[in-house]
Design goal:
The protein has a five-stranded antiparallel beta sheet with strand order 4-3-2-1-5, with no helix packed on it. The model has no long low-confidence stretch (mean pLDDT 88). Helices cover 2% and strands 53% of the residues. The protein is an all-beta fold and 186 residues long. The chain folds into three domains: 60 residues, SH3 type barrels, CATH 2.30.30.30; 59 residues, Beta Barrel (OB fold (Dihydrolipoamide Acetyltransferase, E2P)), CATH 2.40.50.140; 58 residues, OB fold (Dihydrolipoamide Acetyltransferase, E2P).
């Protein structure tokens, strides 16, 4: 693959690791040959790096496929998912899921990034709705000022919530940061 074919979202094999192109910029200086500045993200480690490729460089592209999958259940250190298109079941080890396990709920739909039917990583929805299962009780007069307290949600993850949140409340959580967004009615 030549550098002119680089686009956002494609997979590249660099030093035996698979990277996804986040951003790219074709540069044609007045003097010298053209080059491309690329911002890449390592699929396994989530490390982001920038590389520059010259016009003569050849790259190995990696076909990546995104599959919508639904979380069915957990069995030991593995999670069982169903492909929403084919209804086939797939077992994904906890190590591949990484930090996503903190927010995996039953029947939650995720997007699995696959290479030759092997799941490389999963993308959670940006927001999830979860119930508070454990926290200190809120007191009358606690408002949404800057104070927070620890709480445990129904997936077992620990997050910081405002002081007015009580056990049994439903909240919206940003899965990218793991932070509280708002209280919701369910």
């Amino acid at each position: 693959m030549s550098i002119n074919e680089i686009e956002s979202g494609i997979g590249l094999l660099i030093n035996d690791a698979i990277y996804v192109v986040l951003e790219y910029n074709h540069v044609k200086p007045g003097k010298g040959s053209a080059f491309v500045r690329v911002k890449l993200k390592n699929i396994k480690t989530q490390q982001v790096l920038e590389r520059t490729f010259r016009s003569a460089d050849k790259l190995d592209d990696v076909p990546l496929e995104e599959k919508k999958m639904q979380n069915l259940y957990r069995s030991g250190d593995s999670y069982h998912f169903m492909d929403c298109a084919t209804y086939e079941q797939m077992v994904i080890p906890e190590g591949v899921l990484g930090d996503a396990v903190k927010f995996l709920q039953d029947n939650l739909e995720i997007v699995a990034v696959c290479h030759h039917n092997q799941v490389l990583k999963v993308n959670l929805p940006t927001f999830i709705i979860a119930q508070i299962t454990q926290t200190e009780p809120g007191f009358k007069g606690d408002s949404s000022r800057s104070g927070t307290k620890p709480a445990v949600i129904d997936t077992g993850a620990s997050i910081q919530v405002p002081l007015f949140i009580n056990m049994g409340d439903w909240i919206k959580i940003d899965t990218r940061s793991g932070g509280y967004v708002e209280r919701v009615q369910k």
